[in-house]
Each structure stands twice: as C-alpha cells, then as structure tokens.
Amino acid sequence: MDKTRVAVVGLGNVGTGALDAIEAAPDLDLAGVVVREHALCRARQLLPPHVSVVSRMDELGKVDVAVLAVPSRSVEKVAVPLLQQGICTVDSFDIHGSELWRLRQELDQAARQGGASAVIAAGWDPGTDSLIRAILALQAPRGITYTNFGPGMSMGHTVVAKEKEGVKNALSLTLPIGYGQHRRQVYVELEPGYALETIANAIKQDPYFSHDETHVFAVKDVAKLTDTGHGVVMERHGTAGKTANQFFRYESRVTNPALTGQVMVSSARAAKRQPPGAYTILEIPIVSFLPGTLQSIIEQYV
Amino acid sequence: MDKTRVAVVGLGNVGTGALDAIEAAPDLDLAGVVVREHALCRARQLLPPHVSVVSRMDELGKVDVAVLAVPSRSVEKVAVPLLQQGICTVDSFDIHGSELWRLRQELDQAARQGGASAVIAAGWDPGTDSLIRAILALQAPRGITYTNFGPGMSMGHTVVAKEKEGVKNALSLTLPIGYGQHRRQVYVELEPGYALETIANAIKQDPYFSHDETHVFAVKDVAKLTDTGHGVVMERHGTAGKTANQFFRYESRVTNPALTGQVMVSSARAAKRQPPGAYTILEIPIVSFLPGTLQSIIEQYV
Lengths: 302, 302
Fold this sequence. Notes:
2 copies of one chain form a homodimer. With about 300 residues, chain A is of the alpha/beta class. Helix content of chain A is about 35%, strand content about 30%.
C-alpha cells in the first residue's frame, strides 16, 4: 500500500511534535517541512539531512496532506490555497465558538473547489477533548460538563503576554480553581525602564485575560520556569433517560506540543480518508484516525 | 421537523431504560413497545395507557428505528427481518472480537437489501467505552490501555449463573483487582437438595467464568444484594510522537441499564442519519448521536 505523504508547515514546538508523530506512524511518509524563507537556514541545522526543508510546498513533489503548525490567525490564509490545489490540510485552530464555525465554512468551500479535505481544530482542546465532551453528553444528555485545564502553560496566552511593550519574555500558566473556573499566573521578564504595574495592567485588560482572575509576577528568568506539561480534567454529572447521578470524569496529563502534534498527524490520516470538504473532529468517524484495516480496528477497540 | 419514530423491542431493564431515554429526547417519538405474545399482559400493566404495547412490529404503523433490548444471542435473528423491511436497528451486542465483526457483516448485508441502517454493539462497553479506547490510542499510539470494570453487576454473567441446575437466583459481581484484571463474585440462592460445591464448580468451569478468578457464595436472598450501579476506569500511559509519559484516565459511575438504554437511543438518532449499512459506533461521526443542527453541536462541544 502506498503511504500517505504528509508535509509539516512551521517548525515551532507543535511542528516538531508533528514531525515526530509522522516518523513514528506505520502508514505515513514525511514529504518535508515548509518554513518561511528567513527560517530555512535554522531549520536545516535543526533537522537531520534526510528531511527536505523548503520555503514553498511545490518544492516537495507530491503532498497528500499538509499539517499546519501555524498560529490560529494564520490558518485560513495558509490553508485556502493548499486546499484549492487539492492538498488536504489539518490545523489546530484553537478559538472556540462562532469563529470556528466561520473557518469551517470558508475552508469547506476551498476544499470542495480543490477536491481535497480539511480537518480543523484538531488539537487536544479543541480536538480530542471536544470528542470526549460530546460522548459525555450523548450518555447523559441533561447535566453540566466542567472542563478544568491545567496546571500548565497556555501557548496562546503566553504569546499575547510576550507581545506587550516592555516585556522581554513571558510565561502564562493556566491554573484550575474548580468547576471550570481558572486563574492565570503570568511571569514576565521586564525590559529595563518598565514598571511591573503598567505591564500587569496591560495584560489584565487584554481580552485574552480580562475574563479570568489574572496575577502578574516579575521574574529574572522565565526560561527556568517553563515546562510544556499540561492536562485537563472534565467532569459531568448528568441524567441518562430519567435516571440521575450518572458520573463521568476524563483526565489527561500530557506534553502539550507532543500531544497537539500527534492529534494533528492522526487527523492527517483521517483527512486523506474523507470526501472533499471541511470537517471538525466531531464530524469524522473515529476509525478514520487510526491505522489498519476496519476489521482490525473494530476487533481491537470495540 | 418530523420526529424520528422509535420502537423498543423487549421490556427488561435495558428496554425500560430505552423507553425513558426516548421520552426525554426532544427529537424522538415513541412508536411503541414490542414484546412476546405471553408478555403482553404484564407489559400493558407496567406501562402507562398512552404507550402502544404489541407483539408484532407491523402493528405500530411507521417505525423509523427499532431499539433491540434483547439478549446478544438473539440480535441477529431479530434484526435481519427488520432491516430487510427498511427499519433501522440498534443493538447492544456485548461480545467483543471476531463475533462482533461477523454480526456486523451479516447485518450490513440485510441493511443494504432493505435500505436501512444498523448500529451494533451500542451500549457502554462495547459502545461509548470503545470510542474512548480509540481516542486514547489516536492520542498516544504506543502504550497499553487497561480497562477496569466495576465494582458492579454483570448482566451477562448473572444470566449464565442463573441457568445452572440447582440455582434459584444468582448475582454475578465484577470486581476490579487492577490493571485490567478482575475477580468475579457470584452469589447464589440454592434449590433444596443442591450442594454449593457442585454448583460452584459448574459456574467456574463455564467459559464465561473460566478465565477469571471466581468465588461463589451461597446466600439466602440474592435480591437484597442486587444493585444496578456499575462503572469503569480506563487508563493509558503512552507515547505521542516520540514523547513518552502521556497519561489518560476515563472513569464512569453509572446505572447500568439506564446508561445502556440511553446510549442505544442516542444511537437510534445516529442510525436514522447514516446511509444504508451496518456500523459499529466507531464508524459513525459523533455529531450524529446528538440532537440539534451541525452548527449548534459544533459551537457547543468543539
């Protein structure tokens, strides 16, 4: 059987995690890595010589699926031209709600034009946690699910904190305080001449932080505090039929970029198996994410 | 929008759970209950007058989906004629492995003939637990998942124990002893003149029990010990990409027949939405099991 050829776009933490997952998969081949022109040299130094590192996808020959390890805000502009050329895409767009639906509709149109498919929001949350939330709800339709993140580093919030004027480096931790509520602790290295109070206010007023209790601390060396461990606890008490007190709990303790990369790569397999169109992970049968024949998957997991 | 009309076949614990779940669903209507001729009278006494209780499916008018609350060994012979007539079916066939694959192939043929669809093995294990097992594996492809059942009453093992000669009533409990291993404790009420030792041997030699450590106890009143609470703990340590020590844990504490009935009814909704054929729960997108529009489901759960 021909292996599916997968390219990785971007070589940050998540891109590196995706590379590892492709190399470990029995049914996938790494087509290569696509980075921006200015990052070519560094990327080639980081990767072993057998990995093709290019700045344009068309330098890689046949590519079935592109794993887009790029910021959420860049997903649409990177994905649309690839889909229109018939290359499937996977992203880990991480903004919940109506923006996600809008992205799905945009990519769906491009995917149908190009005869390719897109799997969107395919990380762990949104992503595999979304599957779990839906499975809890189908088992006990009435009730509340609490999603408690962390303790762990939030990639998105860290980026926002780093961008504030006067911040040299930053780390934003998400700390669960129970029943779906979170506290954020932001550790910042200040540029000379900046006051903690000014920067703390700028961070707390940002829409990324303004809904949560946020504490900002000045430290000398953010790097010493940084760890990519993360996790979630989801709990639901609900009613099945007319019977109350059905309890479900899902917990993960994971390495954030490794898990995100792995879920994206499992989703690359699923992308190849779907008809043209864009899909959230909830719209794809679970068998599509696993290697092997239908019979072997059913006998192993059912 | 027309509601989906769902019938329930069988009125044991699971059938009653399914009835409750249909009545609680916003998008489903109860078409009625089908029981064997000799059980009609008792079923009519148990149910409120607005519920149609019949002995033949064709007495219920239009039926979209039949929820088969019947023993695993009866699923095939009940499902095939319904599927051939174009009525979708849902069962909770609970034998893992190659027998399940064989049932899927048999029902697939009947379903395609009749233009209907069948969702098979749609309880909690096999069923929603199967989904969880597959989701853990797609997140960390290398590793071991341990499924620990109970403590709780095993319906299948209880039936087998009750059928032994000299047993008036029985209860088989599944007790987890760690890392996927289980002990079974069977409580029996003896008929006069039978010895515990003889019955204990007959139970321990049955293929249902012979693979597990089994203890058999004689008691005066099995009914006083009986509780339908059950649950599972599934744990996986695995590797995502090349990163070890990814940990996942799923736990449920549930009322066995209520949850089984609810999962079957959520699956009735999914059956109606699939093209003709037979499906395990792993082959169907999760969105199909939930009420509401695609956009509302995505915005709520992703």
